[in-house]
Amino acid sequence: MLKSFLLFTAVVLLVFSGSAPASQAQETSGGKAAAKSTTPAPDSHAKAKKLYDLDCALCHGANGDGKTDLGKDMQLTMLDWTDPKSLAGMSDQAIFDAIRKGKGKMPPEDDARAKNDEIKGLVAYIRKFAREQTASPAAQPPAATPAPGSTPDGTPAPDPPAKPAPGK
User: Fold this and answer.
1) What number is the average pLDDT over the span 50-73?
2) All domains of the chain, ordered by start, with CATH?
3) DSSP per-residue string spanning the chain
4) Residue range 100-106: average pLDDT?
């Protein structure tokens, strides 16, 4: 009976220990397999905002416009992420790679500080800056000039009173 129990325990441990390294390898690989999918996890918005506030906002601005004192002091030219055109030509993977590996004076985001899923959420969070701008109400169009013979609200103006005929 004891041998059966030990054999069963050994098999269970072997099964669980065999699956753990594979999942850890995907999480810690930091590269090809983990970075291919750029879909963020469902609860990632709050984490992404926190990560952005801690690591990105200092240079890129709280609203993503890239206009910060530090950026000016370091003579950095940064994209205005509130402009939909600024990221239009960049894939999520390119943004992911820039964050993970760094770009120019921007330092890379360390694996220990942010996992791949958190960076995927950060990519979605950054893209949200431009979507918020396009969703905001557009500037009011200039007031239309009323057509001749109409009132400012667009209704037809009443006919002017008739003039008496000359000589009467």
Assistant:
1) 92
2) 36-133 (1.10.760.10)
3) -HHHHHHHHHHHHHHHHHHHHHHHHHHH--SHHHHH--PPPTTHHHHHHHHHHHHTHHHH-TTS----HHHHHTT-----TTSTTTTTT--HHHHHHHHHH-BTTBPPPPTTT--HHHHHHHHHHHHHHHHHHHHSPPPPPPPPPPPTTB-TTSPBPPPPPPPPPTT-
4) 91
